[in-house]
Amino acid sequence: MKHLDALGLILLALSFGMLGCKPSPPQPSAARPESSTRETTSSSDAASTGTTDRKIGLSILTSSNPFFIEIADAMKEAAAKSGYEVIVVSGDHNPDKQQNQVKNFIIQKVAAIVLTPCDSRAVGTAIQEANQAGIPVFTADIACIAEGAKVITHVATDNYSGGRQAAVAMVEALAGKGKVAILDFPQVESVMLRTKGFRDELAERNQKGEIDIEIVATLPADGVKDKGYKATQDLLQAHPDLNGIFAINDPSALGCYAAIENTNMAGKIKIIGFDGQIDGKQAIRDGKIYADPIQFPKRIGTQTVDAIVKYLDGEEVPPSLLIPAELYRQSDALADPSL
What we know:
Layout: H1 2-21, H2 32-48, E1 55-60, H3 66-81, E2 85-90, H4 95-108, E3 112-115, H5 124-132, E4 137-140, E5 154-157, H6 159-174, E6 177-184, H7 189-207, E7 212-220, H8 225-238, E8 244-247, H9 250-262, E9 270-272, H10 278-285, E10 291-294, H11 297-312, E11 320-323, E12 326-329, H12 330-334
Parallel strand pairs: 1-2, 1-3, 3-4, 4-5, 5-11, 6-7, 6-8, 8-9
Antiparallel strand pairs: 10-12
C-alpha cells in the first residue's frame, strides 16, 4: 500500500508538472484595449483642435461681387480634390454677421476657417475666438490687421504693387498732368495697400519732376456700384475740373463711369479700375475704363486650399503668399479671346 501510495504521488506530481508547462491559450482580444485607447486619444485630439470634419468654412466679403464668387468656386474645386468640402457664406459687408458665421463654423468644428474680412480690424475678435477653439484661420484677398489675432497664411494679390500699376496707367491716360481723385474702401487692408501704392507712385514721380498730377479728393465708395455712382456725382460737383479717377475695384469703377456718362462727361475723365472681372474687361475694351491692374481670384482660391491642406498634413506654410497683378489695357482687351 505504501508502495502504491508513493507511486500515486509520483504520477500526481507528473500530472501537475505537465499542466504547469502547458502554453497559455491565444488571447485574440489582448491587443484590443491598446487599439481602443489609441483611437479614443486620436478622436479626443481631433475634437480639441476642431478637426473632426473634413470641412472648411469660408466667409466671403460679399456674394454680389463675382470676384469673391470665383475665389469660393476655386476653393471648392481644389478642396474636393483633397477630400474636403467648403461651406461658403457671405458676410455681406457686415462685420457682426461675419463674426456670427465664424461662431457657427466653430460649433460645426470645421477643419479650418477662411475669411475675406468685411473689416480688417473688426475681424480680429472673430479670429481670436477661432484661435481659442484650436481651429486654424486663413485669410484670402483681404488680410486681418488686428493685434492678437493669429492667421496661419494670408493669400492675396500683391495689392501695393497693383496700386503702383494703377498710378502708371493714370500717368499714361493723362499724359502726366492733371487732377485726380480716389474712390476708396478704407475698411479693408487690400484697398489700403492699393491706395498707398497709387499715392506712392505718383508722389515719387512728382518729386522727380516727371509728372504734375495732384490727388485732390478721396471719397468712400465701399467697392460697390451704387456708392461709386453717388461718390462720383459728389466729386464732379466739388471738382468740375477733375481729369481722372482711380476706383479701387471694377464695381465702383462701373458706377463711376455711369455717373460721368450721366453728366455728359464721358471720355473727358479717365477711369482706372482694379480687378479685371469680365464686366470690367468689357468696359476697358469699349473705352469706358482706361485700364485695370487685374487679379487672379482662381489662383487665390486654389493656393489658399493648398496652404490649408499642407498645414493640416503637418507641413510648414509661409505666413503670406502674394500673387502679382498685371496691367490690362484696351489693347489687351481687344486681343482677349474670352471677350
